[in-house]
Amino acid sequence: MDQAQNLRKIAWGIKRRSTYISISSGKGGVGKTNFAVNISHTLARMGKKVLLFDADLGLANVDILLNLNVKTNIKDFLEGNVSSENLVVDSGYGFDVVPASSGFVNLTKLDEGQYDKLMDLFVKFDSKYDYIIFDTGAGIGENVIKFSSVSDMLVVITQPEPTAVTDAYAFIKVVNKEFNITNPYLVVNKSKTKEDGINIYENLKNVLKRFLDIDLELLGVIRDCKEVALSVREQKPIAETSPSSIYMRDLILVGKKIVNMNIEKNYNNELSNIFRRSL
Description:
alpha/beta; Rossmann fold; eight-stranded mixed beta sheet; 8 strands; globular; disordered C terminus
């Protein structure tokens, strides 16, 4: 049975149906989780089946932003106390959520057995969703790198602030070194104007190309918007609280770009080796 299970995982890696998107950032406070929640909602409104996986496993935030009353979380699943079917929560906004837990330091660095159980989870969910979105923790922790490694699309969130841009560069450098990820996407959040965001992208793109030979693509610029704070306070997606806001208009452009992309499925040698170890 173990061998059959691992063969199914290898087949999933090669022929998986869902598109896996990792939402990451070099530092906290740049609006990463808010973006993950709202892009999930936007894609669902576009008719896509979306699962938002709170991959900041020890510091849950997705359920808070959506005001979800969760009774189980990823910790319960990893400890064998809940099935995959009972782990998924309806967000109430057209997409599903896998909630994380809060205050458990042992989940900030998964062992091989726990990581393998997560792979089992993705094998089961793969046929049910168009997009599986990981809202990872901030920074370059081991869990963040692993979720990035199994994703088809790595989206890095930054903002017009020197430390945020520097940390975005450092994050991209690490995932490139660890898993040879050479085609990340950038979202410049909280930008004063579109032009400011594009300038930040162009500068970061040139540095990455010059020193690391990495091709950075711009997924979008999201302008600073006071209505975002209202949606956070009300614990609802911004499309529900401020549907005509600048943030929402910019986010729709990002959603359309994702839907219209021909995203190449990522199946790297490291992922293959993870699954073949126990064959």
